[in-house]
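User: Hi! Is it possible to get a structure for several chains at once, not just one? Here's what I have:
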Amino acid sequence: MIKMEERMVRIYVMGKEYRVPAGLTILKATEYAGYRFIRGCGCRGGFCGACGTLYRKEGDYKLYTALACQTIVEDGMYLVQLPFVPAPKAIYDIEKLKPFGEVVLSFYPEVARCVGCNTCTKTCPQEIEVMEFIQAVKRGDLERASELSFDCIQCGLCAARCPAEIKHYHVAQLVRRLYGKYLAKHSEPLKKRLREIEKSSYEKEVDELMRMSQEDLKRIYYSREIKV
Amino acid sequence: MLELIDGYPKYMRESIEKVEETREERLKTSVPPMSAEEREKILKKFHPDYREDSRRRLRVGPNAGDLVYHEVADILEARPLVDPKEIDLSTVDYEVDVLIIGGGGAGTVAAIFAYYEGISPENILIATKLRHGDANSMMAEGGIQCADSEDDSPVLHFIDTIGGGHFANKPELVKALVFDAPLILRWHEELGVMYDRNDTGHFIENPGGGTCRKRLHSAKDYTGMEIMRVIRDEARNIGIPVLEFSPAIELLTDESGAVSGALLMNLETNEYIVVRSKATVLATGGFGRLHLQGYPTTNHYGATADGLVLAYRVGAKLRDMETAQYHPTGAAYPEAIVGQLITEKVRGMGAMPVNAEGEAFVYPLEPRDVESAAIIRECYERGKGVKTPTGMVGVWLDTPMIDEIHGEGTIRKHFSAIWRLVARFGIDITKDPILVFPTLHYQNGGVEIDENGWTGIEGLFAGGEVTGGVHGKNRLMGNSLLDYNVFGRRAGISAARHAKRSSFRELTLRHVERFNRMLDEAGLKEDKRAPILLPDYRGERVLARSLKIRI
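Assistant: Yes, the chains can be modeled jointly so their relative placement is included. Here is the combined structure:
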């Protein structure tokens, strides 16, 4: 990385110019410029989708998207954040649903309006194949759709730009829950362990440990067999 | 401008070559785990928890005399944000059975289980500082512990947790933690959480630091995000109301000192909001953004320990606050991501910490405090760290070993978050190691609770990172996601039951007046205010010229 003092770049926060050290993320550069975030800043680590950002670069026709906390500033960036996207989520009782594509479409009929423009994919700061995901939903392939959308951080930038008004990230949430609940095989050993605990199978042993002196506990801990 | 070759400057590349040279040999051997004596010795000498100048004794409140980090003492001994005389509590904005403060993992689980326990959604309210789900819970990468495999048992999970916590844990909390784990995992399955599974449907499980069995359940390296977004979706389907951008700035109490509600602040309009509740659950998370000892942190923007301050002022007791968890492997390079989490699952699946000379120097799966101390020793006593262009020192985490052990494609499949994090800077972790150094990660201690999530203050319950006792003096990997589920659930159920047999109480800020008098009597004249709500990262030049004019 470049030393902070070495070089300054110009960024334009909603059109207003600031000079900031090169090498900072958009988030840190905006803070350096004097902004204190309430909206538009969350985990600061690329997991929460709070800092979705749109930008253009001088002399470049394209509109880019980024997570402000994961993207380094470039000279001549025109920045605006999109910390909230008005995109209603369907309300459902997961217990009463069946894991079919039609079920998803009944909650989000606009999925069928996808024109295949691929703007969603080009928009996604996680580089998810969003349009492929929508096609998988349309085919009713919920397993593939779940895999494709798994890394979605729900920033909503796709939904903000979709000409068919699809709320991809909400659709994906429903799809993954249907897959995880109904299509993925569940664990048998887990159920077995649950039954054992209900029958208090381990209660006595743990209660004994709880009564033990710290010295005895230490001996047991340091001599336990490690099987990893 | 420094020239980079696939993300690294040339001099760092030279050290990477040494790492590559020893890789084959290291795949066959491992440094053995430390004995009890070795652990104690290295911790005392190198772990920040043991530095004399890092902490001081509290001068006021329920824990007066206890040793805590300076940054924690600063907020616990700070003045309240509001003057009780300026607040009109006669107009109540919300009246609910169960108020939940904090919209992260613990708060969301508490809300859902209060609903399962028979409280209707409109009688529950989640008040949260940022958005629903903005929390450390969302950022957890590696996994959640649950002893559900044939060769494992809740007894072993209990022993691992107590040993990792230096035998300081509150045993009844650990018992609840390990016995509730299978119930929580089953609940997640029924909600549709997509855990990594093998062909039979059982979970793919990995070891974590300090576990004697493979017990970590994960969803790639987005485990926290996957659980959080599913439970948030469920809370939204149930229709539990959430007040976003409205943190609590004080609890409210009645004549007897029982908690009767909370005072919130709308961060966007600056108005205060009065909530009256029959039961209140504190689920405000931890303290990473206090940057203890100047350490960078893995934590969320809002992790400023507000709940500790609020609870302390109503007389709740804290415990195990003299320690903090530094995650052994925070990113040390590139500068833009310093302090961000490189999940322990990376070591769980075979990657080894290696020094500048390409030598292994520590068993990769020691408990976190021991592993961190070993990395600090390697960098600062032995001088075998790698210095970055901005002056950070770190050691290599040899990620390419994962694909060597488990086959090509494993990293891309299991670590898409970490792969993406550094790929944005031109580094490919399937080919090159990443540079790491410990980073402030978790608040081991906190508000003391019993096994039902009760704080000992009438009407006040708590769950998740704000609490103490579950992890003793050092938390194991995968026990925090489990903690917030187990104790979020227990606190939610307890709060619901409490609400059903209670009526609304008087609302006052008398405890705040009392606390102010206590500070006066102790001669504490500093004008520091708390809770601090959000850290301030504005540039120094701007702050130096900042005018205090309100417009």
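Chain A has a mean pLDDT of 95. Chain A touches chain B through 78 residues (CB under 8 Å).

User: Great, thank you!
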